[in-house]
Amino acid sequence: MTTDTDAAGTNSTGANSQDASGAGAPGTAGAGPRRTAAAQRSAPPGKPRRTRRKVVGAAAGLAGIVLLVLLPLLNLSLPGVLPGPTYTPGSLQLLAMCMLMAAAALTYHVLLGVAGLLSFGHALYFGAGVYGLAIILQNLDIPLLPAMGLTLLVVIVLAHVVGSISLRVSGIPFAMVTLAFAQAGSVIVGRNPDGTTGGDEGLSLRTDNLPDFLVGVANTRNLYWLALAVLVAVFIVVTWVQSSRAGHVAAAVRENELRVRVLGLQPYLVKLLIFVVSAVLVSIIGMVFLLLQSGAVPRAISADLTITLLVMVVLGGVGSRWGAVIGGVFYTILDQRLTTLANSDAIDALPDILRIPLSEPLFILGTLFILVVLFLPGGLTGTAQRLARRRKRLRGAGEARTGEDSTAHDRTETSREILEESA
Amino acid sequence: MSTVVLLLFTGLGLGALYFLVAAGLSLIYGLMGVLNFAHGAFLTLGAFAGWEVARRTGSDNWGIFLLSLLVGAAAGAAFAAFTEFVLIRRLYQRHIEQLLITLGLSLAAVALFDGIWGTDPVFIQGPAWFKDTTEILGARIPNDRFVCIIAAVLVLLAMVFFLKNTRYGMIIRAGVENRSMVTALGIDVRKAFTLVFTIGGAAAGLGGVLASHYFGYVSPMLGGSLLIFAFIVTVIGGLGSLTGAAIASVAVAVLQQFANFYLGGTGDFVVVLALALVLLFRPSGLLGRTS
User: Fold this and answer.
1) Rounded to the nearest 10 degrees, what angle do helices B189-215 and B2-32 cross at?
2) pLDDT (tens digit, 9 = 90+) per residue, B91-113?
3) A228 min Cα distance to partner chain B (Å)
4) Are B204 and B44 in contact (CB under 8 A)?
5) How far is CA B37 from CA A175, B24, B29, B41, B212, in A?
6) B95 and A173 in contact by Cβ < 8 A?
7) CA triple A61-A64-A66, angle to 5 deg
8) What is residue A390's predicted lDDT score, i.e. its pLDDT?
9) Is ipTM > 0.90 here?
10) Which of A149, A342, A399, B239 has the most CB atoms within 10 Å of its CB?
11) CA–CA gap between residue A285 and residue A334 (Å, rounded)
């Protein structure tokens, strides 16, 4: 009896948290069965405010997208963030990369944040998209879209095979097994069988069968729009998956797999579905990455890429879609800026003990990552939320009182819980 | 016949390296539940420390080689103890966050090694005897293989002795079995945590120096590439089992060598295939406890 009600409670609070963060207002992310009663008590006064917030959030999101769409036509400068004005190919290239990485981080969020699957093999599917499309375009004379379809087919089969084997274990062993499979993929690419993958050199994109508007530096803005479209589409699909039945079951499996099994559901199939969906999405992003970079590089299939995605998700805040997006953009820009900084004269002039660490972007990013895990457990979004709440409490203790119960269980706690449960 | 013997010994030498990494990984995971991604960095640091010793003293005799082994092991142990004491200790029982910390540490450490020693591999000289070969059953086997095998066997024996016959060894074994019970008996299990990390780091550092002689070079990527196979070995052997790690190291490495030779360089895939098969039929590994 208790099993039933508790599981239902978990589901309904799960839905609440998704609504709230989906509208760009992660203020009411309540989760966990013990909070259910409190959340329900405070629900009536909170409801109109939540709908208003939702509308405001949606409007802000729409305005943001419109601004991003118009960006290539504007002449904005963000010194220190972008290498030049927004219409220049260099800036657009970086921005497009941010979009793709944010989208890739979102697909990783589906694994880790929704289903609690800590995969170290996500790069395999990204790389399968990159290399699959590159190899098909190289060797077959077919247009872009059929080539992408063919690549997708390969990825779907691959994800089913690898997923069905590695999901036999869970937690840390799952992480190791996915890593091993991804490593096998990375090794194939490095070995360069019959010259198909180009080995360490990578494979440059053959443009014969590509539409003209996607080729050349002058058309970077088309690629930028494509990347933006991919990000928006992935965000919508991820939101949809998360709020679908499968998404709810996956979240419930994350919380308590045994309970889900007792209810007569099949955790294994749901996890496999989530795994495959995430793999397919990231392979599409990989294909666009190939077009943007106009070449496939071994890094696209290396374990480093998976780790980068994991770092992005954790930096942004585990369990939050916006966190993944923000983490992806933040990491990509920081990486690019730090690389520029490393090659600058100011760094070169420093004594060795400062110059060596500062000229290694990954050293700074790795250290930053450790600090975030140690001191900001909810990532960037969790910290922002905590600061906002503290400010609200300072402004008026009485006013904040009503929402306090449901918001007490904030992003930080959610992140920690998800991490704990995926172990 | 001579090819088989040569492959066997090469595989045993590689298996010895896998074991030196996997032993620490497996013990750490068994006792603390931490998947230590920084283990490769311990190994790389050990390798570079050993190389620095050889480079600075300028000679390549046995004494220097033994000294470099000691220094490598000490460097690995110190790095590991630091990691446990400063970073991991703050997050006990938060396994994924501990994993993330070690991940960040491995990123940062490898980048730092890049900055200090450069990204290109540096070549290393051992005692002259290393370059010779010994003939066994018609196969000419490079001598450094024997050094790796002997070192790994000694480490295995020392670890088994330590775990079976000393007080701290018993605490560690008891902790792997049931940590809360050990704590309930009033034993400070955290000391055992630091100890396990230190031992694992020392083994990895030793493995680093040996690996640099086995492969003939040191590079910042050395640890990462061995670490992945060590992960596979620990899963196949059964997480937390030292004997399992030893058996799986040898099996994986020998299999890898034979597949590389007879099946046209497919060693790595055969290993992953073996992993898949083990998972399908024995998800807890060869000697792992069934939960």
Assistant:
1) 160
2) 877 788 888 899 999 989 998 99
3) 29
4) no
5) 11, 12, 11, 8, 20
6) no
7) 110
8) 85
9) no
10) B239
11) 21
